[in-house]
Every structure is written in C-alpha cells, then in structure tokens.
Amino acid sequence: MTERTIYLDRNARPSESRKITVRAYRWYASVELDRDNYVDATTTRGQEPELPSAYKEALDRVRLASTDRIWYDGYPGSFSWGEGARWITLPVQFSQVEATIQALRLAELENEYSQLHALADRLQLPVDEWLAPGERELVRGIDFQSPPQTFLNFLRGKSKHWGLRLNGRATTGSVWIRPTLLPVQKTIREMYPDRYPQWVDRWSGYVEPEDAPIRPWVGGRDQDLSHGANPIHFDDVDVSTDNDCPCGMPLRDQWDDGKAHTAHHAAWAFGIRVPKNLMWPGNLAVVTPQSPISWRKLAAKAGRMPMRENHYDFNSWSYLGEPEEAPNNDRAFLLKANEYVIGYLVGTDTNEHSRLDLLDESTSGASDDTLRPRIDLIWTAGSYRGQGIASKLVHALAEDFGCQVGDVSWSTPISDAGRQLARRLSPEGIWVS
Length: 433
Ligand SMILES: [Zn+2]
Fold this sequence. Notes:
By secondary structure, the protein is of the alpha+beta class. Helix content is 30%, strand content 20%. It folds into 3 domains: 4-123, no CATH class; 128-191, no CATH class; 259-432, Aminopeptidase (3-Layer(aba) Sandwich). α3 (97-110) packs antiparallel against α4 (114-123). The mean pLDDT is 91. Residues 245, 247, 249, 261, 265 line the site of zinc ion (ZN).
C-alpha cells in the first residue's frame, strides 16, 4: 500500500488544508488527519482549541475497537497516538482504510459522527462474551476467525487487562478457555474502584452447569497447584528506601522494565567487556588521544560509569575524533580482569600544585611548579572494590610518568573514597591541583 494524502478543504491552499495521510505498516495502516494549519487558521492566537466531545468520544470508540481488531489479527506490538485537536491518528486494518477516510471526512466537513460510530460498531469484537465465566470451546470459523494460537494470545492479553486467569489451550481448530478472576486482582479492583470504573465481578460466584463441556485431557500441566490455596495477606509497612542505585541509576520510574538500568548496572558491577577483536597482552593499557579509535571508545565506555555514578555532566574521556596530540599528555589507564575493564584512571600532566596535609586537612600554602602527573578521576567496577585496584592504578600512573607515588598530584575536590586512598598511599600529605 502506497502512502497517500487526501486534502479535505478543496478551496484552501494545500498548505492550509486539513489533510488525511495513509501510511502502511506491516500489520495495519495508520490513517492520520493533520489539522495543524487548519487549527492555526481558524482559532485565535493563544487559544488551544479542543475537539467537540462527541467527536472525541466517537474517535475513542473507533480506536478501541480497531486496535482490538489489529491485535486479534496477530499484531504483537503496541500503539501510540497523540492527544489534542491538531493530529488525529487511527490505526486500522487495511480493509478499513476507505471507510475510515470517509468517516473522518464526514466528521470534519459536516460535524457528523454517525459513520465513525458505525465503523466502531462494525469492528467491535465480542470480548465480553469470549471472557464470560465458564469452561467453553470456541471454534474457529464460528466463534472467531484468526488462527487459534493467535486468538488465544489475544484473549490472554485481554484477560490480563481484566485481571483474569484464562486457563486456555489452543487446538487445531478451536481454543478451550476457562476465565477465572484472580483473588488478588479482585482485591485490587475493589480497593481502587476509581481506577477500574464499571468493573463488575462476573466470575467469582460462577457455578459451572451440569452440562458444561468437558475439555479433553491432553496431558501436560493441567494440575492447578493453587486449587484450595489460602489468599495472601497484604499489608502496608512504613519503609524508606534510597531512590538511587549505587550505580547511579534511579530505582524508581523504570519505564522500560528496568532494561536500561540492568544493562548499565551489569557494566558498572563487572566492568566493560573488552571487544573480542581487541588484542590486549598483559592487563594494563595506556590510552592516549592518539590511540586507535577502538581503544579510545573503550576508554569512553569506562568513563561513562563514574559519570553516571557521580552524576557528572561530562565524560572524563572525550577524545573520540581523529587522533590528536593533547597538550598535557592526557591519558587513560585501563585495567583488565576476566576480560573486562574493571579499573579506569584519567591523568594529565600539570605544574601548578599546592600541598595538602591529610592529618589536619590544611593546605600549608606551599606552592610548587614541578611538572607532575595529576589524577583527574579513578573508578573501579562495583564488584572489584576494596581490593586495591585504585591504588594499583595510581602506581601505574607514577611509573608511567617516572616518579614516586608520593609525587603525583590529585585534582580537587577529592571524594571521600579518594581521600582514603590518598591517606593510604601518602599518609603524610599529598600534592593537589
Ligand atoms: Zn544499579
């Protein structure tokens, strides 16, 4: 199906006309009515118009019935559309595209919504009937048209939405179902009636009639291990928890089921996986702005860990363009264990330092203009902390520069963990810059 555009206002310039665009996706077509310029032209500035409520209601009915149809056809995904009067999006089956265009045209030009309602009526599936209580066999070609497994998946989605347990099985030409209400879902719906308006429990008191059909037993997990079980007791305990994970990601509002956090947390805990095609003899690599890009990318990946953990705005390693010579010998030390980068130190050479006494936390005022390597940032993977990794990295920095550990400089402000490390490495005091 080719994308096409239909202009509704014959006398207006195309740029000012309302227009309907039809886009084809794999499972359905999206009929989109663009009223953006029309709304601008017909409303006073600063007033955001609204669709008439009768129009909105008709559109909602079409959307509800139409999306159900598309799921019923086997579409496994979800839908999204905006709110408001400027854009109206209706996902519909390919066979309904013309009817949808006509119904929208009538609604727009004549404020007449009967065709939208007629479309919704035609698309409406008997979900209520399908999910009624009781053991039943629904037969393909009589009760439904989709392939049985597709139909069963659709019913499972609907049941979940209604808080039902389906107990369903697809056969070659039919599905067997026995929808029952989960006690916990009943409790939730009775606790929050405002969240479930018009919800009626049709299932709890249902008694199977004498002549109920008997589902053929085909083996498998037919045994209901919750039969006769006692319901769970629920309570509310006053608990306060951190909203931030140690890795720096928020623990609440995990919109993607926590997938992004899970991936980041694994990298934070185990370190960054070393690409298999990267030859890395030994376990320490010194990456400079002139290193091959794969190494500089690895350093940047490592740099993202402390960035997220400490909520910095910038990555401590940013050399991702062409190889370049950095003025202060900027470099990143990567330490490897178990094929992961588990330690990361960024250093640079500078010659403005002052002395910090770590015992009484005083700066002696003594300034120093010796060229020294300075630690800008150290990070150790979560699972490797407390094993002296950071201290090894400081030694590596000193050795690389050709000085003693006590000669390196620390960039301020120094974190608590950094202070503890500095105290261990140079108890008498350190250079800071
Ligand atoms: Zn985490």
